[in-house]
Amino acid sequence: MIVTVCAGCALGQSSFAEPLREALDAAGLTAEVRTVDCMSGCARPSTCAFRALGKTAYLFGDLTADDLPDLVTFARHYAASADGNLGDARVLGALRMKAIARSPG
Q1: Do the Cβ atoms of 58 and 40 come closer than 8 Å?
Q2: Could you tell me the fold of the domain covering 2-103?
Q3: Which of 59, 57, 44 is nearest to 9 (CA)?
Q4: Strand ranges (DSSP E) for 7-94?
Q5: CA pair distance 51, 25, nearest whole angstrom
Q6: Which side of the chain, N or C, has fewer Cβ within a 10 Å radius?
Q7: Above 90 in pLDDT, residue 64?
Q8: Is the pLDDT of residue 105 over 90?
Q9: Separation of alpha carbons 103 and 59, rounded Å
Q10: At what angle do helices 17-26 and 68-80 cross, to 10 degrees?
Q11: Is the preceding peptide bond at 46 cis, omega within 30 degrees of 0?
């Protein structure tokens, strides 16, 4: 799984990629956490994307450091899903309302 954090947004500027990487590692999840200068989610900053080969990709926005536990929960369910789709979004907590886009794999 590749997780990309927008470095141009406030969350990315606060070096959020590192605590996210550490939390995913601590949860036993294999993920490459990257940053990119801009993800063009400026209408709903701060943004973070999840993608994996053959899976639906997700983009979340309006994120804060408080969303870290929900991002880890999402990553756990995403990793367990064969196609990246989740049958019940309620397990995502506040992230349900922070989803900007979902792109088929």
Answers
A1: no
A2: Glutaredoxin (3.40.30)
A3: 44
A4: 32-36, 48-51, 57-60
A5: 17
A6: C
A7: yes
A8: no
A9: 9
A10: 50
A11: yes
Confidence of residue 95 (pLDDT cuts 50, 70, 90): very high
Q: What are the residue ranges of helices labelled H in 47-101?
A: 68-80
Give the C-alpha separation, 74 to 89, whole Å.
9
Q: What is the dihedral of CA 54, 60, 25, 72, to 10 degrees?
A: -100
Cα(79)–Cα(81) distance, rounded to whole angstroms?
Answer: 6
Identity of the amino acid at 38 = C
Looking at residue 48, what is its pLDDT? 97
Mean pLDDT taken over the chain: 94
Query: Domain boundaries in the chain?
Result: 2-103
In the chain the beta strands, taken as DSSP E runs, fall at 2-6, 32-36, 48-51, 57-60, 99-103
Token readout for 32 is 């490459």
